[in-house]
Design a protein that fits this description.
α1 runs parallel beside α3, α5 crosses α6 and α9 runs antiparallel to α10. The chain has two domains: about 190 residues, 2-enoyl-CoA Hydratase, Chain A, domain 1 (Alpha-Beta Complex), CATH 3.90.226; about 50 residues, Lyase 2-enoyl-coa Hydratase, Chain  A, domain 2 (Orthogonal Bundle). By secondary structure, it is of the alpha/beta class. The strands form two sheets. Strands 1-2-3-5-7-10 form a six-stranded mixed β-sheet, sandwiched between helices. Helices cover about 50% and strands about 15% of the residues. The protein is globular and about 65 Å long.
Length: about 260
């Protein structure tokens, strides 16, 4: 377990689970962001940890930023808050581990934005999503205006950000905001099952796939192809690819689809 005030960290083998625990709704303030930043840095350095699961305690995943703190911001403080959130979420997005958001309840504002920075999203049937910032006279500041349209398309992202409306988990799945929706009692079990499947895959391949896919989104297709080819080549020197292919051929030698 971690010794932070607002986070709980549990590690079992190659899987770490980080729980936001700031009652009543896990709202984000500067203290939470600083604790999250340090925790993610520590996890990113741990080569034994290959999958990180994020979830929330209580009825919320993260219900947004701490409005009681934000209402006193001037422009410089607001910019510093946005830059801090963006820096932390970028670290989450780029860390070598695969990150699964297990969204147990309200994922609003900064909570929705942190889920966007994760690689995979599993939602409880009770989860609610939204970017309601316009309702209090501001806009998303932790990357929502950029990641949301990249994930679900510009038109739907504008609808959610412009209206500030909240959507349920089923709708989130229909528009591609989450990968799966499960019963509340099955949420963490499902996240663990996904994590165990991921750690059975080639570790180098997963790291490179994540890095290339993230980088390729922000460059030309030709540049992305070049990154992909370089990363493909890097899979071979360590022996992981040769071992995987040998195992595949030994297991499937009688199959006519062995030449993938």
């Amino acid at each position: 377990m971690s010794e932070f005030n607002y986070l709980e960290l549990e590690t079992s083998g190659s899987i770490a689970q980080l729980t936001f625990d700031r009652p009543p709704v896990n709202a984000l303030n500067m203290d939470v962001l600083h604790e999250l930043h340090q925790t993610l840095l520590d996890i990113a350095r741990q080569e034994t940890v290959r999958v990180l699961i994020l979830t929330g305690a209580g009825k919320a995943f993260i219900a947004g930023a701490d409005i009681a703190q934000m209402q006193h911001f001037d422009a410089l403080q607001a910019r510093a808050f946005a830059h801090t959130g963006q820096r932390v979420y970028r670290l989450l997005e780029e860390m070598p581990q695969v990150v699964i958001a297990a969204i147990n309840g309200f994922a609003l504002g900064g909570g929705c934005e942190i889920s966007l920075a994760c690689d995979l999203r599993i939602a409880s049937e009770k989860a609610k999503f939204g970017q309601p910032e316009v309702n209090i006279g501001v806009i998303p500041g932790f990357g929502g205006t950029q990641r949301l349209p990249r994930l679900i398309g510009m038109a739907k992202a504008k609808e959610l950000i412009f209206t500030g409306d909240m959507i349920d988990a089923t709708t989130a799945a229909q528009i591609g905001l989450v990968n799966a929706v499960v019963a509340p009692e099955a949420l963490l079990e499902t996240a663990q099952e996904w994590a165990k499947k991921l750690i059975s895959r080639g570790p180098t391949a997963l790291k490179l796939a994540k890095a290339v896919m993230n980088r390729g989104m922000d460059c030309s297709l030709d540049a992305a192809f070049a990154y992909e080819a370089d990363a493909f080549a890097l899979c071979f020197p360590g022996g992981e690819a040769k071992e995987g292919m040998s195992t595949f051929l030994e297991t499937k030698q009688n199959k006519d689809w062995s030449h993938t």
